[in-house]
Design a protein that fits this description.
The protein is built from six helices and no strands. It is an all-alpha fold and about 120 residues long. The protein has one domain.
């Protein structure tokens, strides 16, 4: 059942973002950053954590989950380090994901062949 919940929740989040891209004048960059901010806000008011526990990877992998991860990292760092945690917590919590994105992006660039769009 966990796989099914992750599949339909993650798919629904992607469909909602795709609908925003298709039917609004918002740029994809604004929609993506909006998703991260929405994840932070939902985490701050206590809604995203139970949602993520229910949906598993369907809620933690999309950009909303990245915002939630950063908010949780900041919350933990503020409790441990005080105000300095506001600046360090988000990046500390998400460092593994950011590093993986850089490494896999580099590998994809070495394997793939880039070309200009005409």
């Amino acid at each position: 059942m966990e796989y099914l919940n992750a599949f339909w929740v993650g798919g629904l989040l992607c469909v909602l973002c795709q609908l925003l891209i298709d039917f609004t004048k918002l740029t994809p960059a604004r929609i993506l950053t909006g998703c991260v901010v929405l994840g932070v806000v939902l985490s701050a008011i206590g809604i995203y954590k139970p949602f993520a526990e229910f949906a598993g990877a369907g809620a933690t992998v999309p950009l909303l989950g990245f915002g939630h991860l950063m908010a949780e990292g900041i919350r933990k760092a503020v409790n441990e380090q005080g105000a300095l945690g506001i600046l360090t917590g988000g990046l500390t919590a998400s460092a593994a994901g950011i590093s993986a994105a850089i490494v896999f992006g580099l590998l994809a660039s070495l394997v793939g062949k880039s070309r200009f769009k005409k």
